Amino acid sequence: MTATATNTLESINPATGEVVGSVPVTPADEISAIVSKATAAQHEWNALGLEGRLTLMRPIADRLIEVAPKIGRLITSEMGKSTPEAQGEATYGASKFASELVSAFEAFQPEEMSDENTRSILYRDALGVSAAITPWNFPMLMPQQCILPSLMAGNCVIFKPSEETPLVGQAYADVLNEFLPENVLQIVHGADDQGKALVASDINLVAFTGSREVGSKILTACGPELKRVVLELGGKDALIVLEDADIDAAASFAVQNSFRNSGQVCVSTERIYVDESIADDFETLVIEKTKDWKQGDPTDETVKIGPMVSSMQRDIVLAQLEQALKDGAVLRCGGETKDNYIEPTVLTGCSHDMQIMHDETFGPICCIQRFENDAQAVILANETPYGLGGAVYGETQHAMNVARKLTPGMVGINKGCGGSEGTPWVGACQSGYGYHSGRDGHRQFTQVRVVSIPIHEMKPNY
Ligand code: NAD
What we know:
The protein has helices at 31-47, 49-79, 83-107, 141-152, 166-177, 192-200, 212-222, 247-259, 279-290, 311-326, 374-382, 396-403, 438-442, 455-458, and strands spanning 2-3, 8-12, 19-24, 111-114, 118-126, 129-133, 156-160, 185-187, 205-209, 228-232, 237-241, 269-275, 330-333, 337-338, 341-342, 345-348, 365-371, 389-393, 410-413, 432-433, 446-454. The chain has two domains: 2-233 and 430-451, Aldehyde Dehydrogenase, Chain A, domain 1 (3-Layer(aba) Sandwich), CATH 3.40.605.10; 237-413, Aldehyde Dehydrogenase, Chain A, domain 2. It is built from 14 helices and 21 strands. Strand 6, helix 4 and strand 7 form a beta-alpha-beta unit. The protein is globular. It is an alpha/beta fold. Strands 13-16-17-12-11-18-19 form a seven-stranded mixed beta sheet, with helices on both faces. Strands 8-7-6-9-10-20 form a six-stranded mixed beta sheet, with helices on both faces. Strands 1-2-3 form a three-stranded antiparallel beta sheet, with helices on one face. The structure holds nicotinamide-adenine-dinucleotide. Nicotinamide-adenine-dinucleotide is lined by residues 133-138, 142, 160, 162-163, 191-192, 195-196, 199, 209-211, 214, 217-218, 232-235, 266, 360, 362, 388, 425, 427.
């Protein structure tokens, strides 16, 4: 991203350095007027009711499926995601749109509860206007999770995509706006200044996905007026490999989950703890499998790993790598860098004396530390302010026992941390404040209200 003197945001392809396209930056002082337009549109949008909004939004799903290949190509050129992964993101997002609408529709139905004296109806009302402030690493999926349930709830939405991926954000909003009434979904472009102005404006909810640092600033900014927030933040996910693990499966997962999207995934495996009794075999397999990860031009469909999103992100990762090597980590493969590319890299002999085992790295560095017993593995895995995801590989019951002692919001046993259909995407500790997806996640985009009637007053109607 570069902001030019004419207030245009240029999107730069991190693989080639070429300009992919540009969008006008929204002047920060125009944001409150944009929010006023949303507030004015919200009454009518809400009045359509759940059925009305479902009917109106359903056709978006087919249109998204049509444009998914184009959005996928844009993801690759704006942020360097490999073609299979970028196409996967766009296709998956499009294919989930219809079922997510229905899931939100069901989650927002009123509920009736009674006791011997009172009959109550619990409504899930719109909040008003929500902001969706999103990152670049999943530039279609992350916005969808903040926009879709909010619209279905009857809110109007102001969407600020990341300054690294404005074109994907615009393409996504354009598709929705082919179907939505005017001002129900508006987009603002820019970086921190536009994000801050949006948070400070007269909105009712901030749905944010991004770093812990920015999430904390948003929570502080929303404090004085007690604005609602849903924050999905960064992580430092651990993988624990127990002595009875399928070592080959654990190594495959370690490699896949350390390097996909060049390690730029909130639930990337950022720390690996392996039982010392199997560590030699595990490390050998991880190194062997890493060599299969072809790196290069992300438009080449056989390439698995492209460049980092930007030189800034590359430099953050390289600084952590350099420090880890100074602090005694052993470089077992990779470590080279050219332009915005960082080779998939494996470090062994890592320890908690190293910054790389604490700070979010967000790069293709696989860090391995050995442990002596399960209790030590649990202590190490939990020694972090983050709590997004994690994984434990081992005999199922053994792994379950370890998993229940871990602090993250989502833990996978012999798999990644994503839960089954309908479960929320949830960061615990400093990885989240509120959460989204699934019935409970969708409901965070609503205001609960309860209306109660005394049972005896109803008797004449029986
Ligand atoms: P970021 O926090 O730097 O930026 C996210 C968004 O916030 C961008 O749109 C940015 O312009 C905006 N922003 C920046 N400063 C702001 C401010 N003061 N007020 C309001 N908005 C502001 O994050 P990023 O670099 O775009 O994304 C990477 C981070 O996102 C990583 O930490 C990653 O773990 C996290 N992430 C979390 C999840 C999850 O589900 N928990 C998913 C994807 C990414």
